[in-house]
Amino acid sequence: MKHVISFLCIVSLILCARMPAQAQTMKEVWTSMPDSVMTLLTRNNRLDCLDYWEAGQEGRVTNRLDGEVKILFLSDDSLSVSDTGVSRYEVRLERKSGGALRNITVRRVVTSGNLTDWTERVYSPEWRLMHTRKKAGDTFEKELLKGTRYIE
User: Fold this and answer.
1) What residue spans define the domains of the chain?
2) Torsion sign over Cα 76, 82, 86, 88
3) Is 62 helix (H, G, I), strand (E, B) or coil?
4) What 3-state DSSP class applies to 61?
5) Where are the strands (E) in the chain, listed by range?
6) What whole-number distance in Å separates Cα of residue 121 and Cα of residue 91?
7) What pTM value is reported for the model?
8) Which pLDDT score, from 0 to 100, does residue 28 have?
9) Closest CA to 121 of 112, 109, 137, 138
10) pLDDT at position 136, please?
11) Cβ-Cβ contacts under 8 Å for 58 (sequence gap 6 or more)
12) CB neighbours of residue 61 within 10 Å
């Protein structure tokens, strides 16, 4: 009987170790985020931004295209990051009534002149894409191409 209990304890420990830890704070979410969510930022970029921010400096680093990335706002449940001169990411955590993380919303906002477009993706705490929404109404591209003439 002792062997069976020992075996079950070992199996439980292995299963718990293999389960992904669910990030609970914005800092944990930011550092655990896959590079594919914010394609211009590597994990090291995100860690550097956070280190600078926590040291009381502007959380500013260079992205994959040699552009400037900086943290605009960071709290326990939300984050705003400028990743180019015309775009930013807004990340928001939604919690269940008990405080556990329900989902992570990542909104990419692009602004050019007086035009603004955004795409919002909602992820599970394990970073599985749950659904995507785009700005309602006229999209950025539609407004941008209004009145365009083509050379024949």
Assistant:
1) 20-145
2) negative
3) strand
4) strand
5) 60-62, 68-74, 78-82, 87-95, 101-112, 115-123, 129-134
6) 10
7) 0.71
8) 92
9) 109
10) 58
11) 52, 70, 71
12) 21
**Tokens 């992820």 belong to residue:** 123
Which residues, including other chains, have CB under 8 Å from residue 121's CB and lie 6 or more apart? 37, 105, 106, 107, 108, 129, 131, 132
First to last CA, the chain: 84
Residue 105's pLDDT is 94
At 101, give phi and psi (nearest 5°). Answer: -70, 125
Query: Which two tokens mark 105?
Result: 């919303």
Query: Residue 98 CB: number of other CB atoms within 10 A?
Result: 6
Q: What is the mean pLDDT of each run of 10 residues along the chain (152 residues)?
A: 50 43 78 91 90 86 88 91 89 91 93 86 94 67 50 46
pLDDT tens-digit map of 47-88? 999 999 999 887 788 888 888 989 998 998 999 999 888 889
Two structure tokens written together for 96: 């269940």
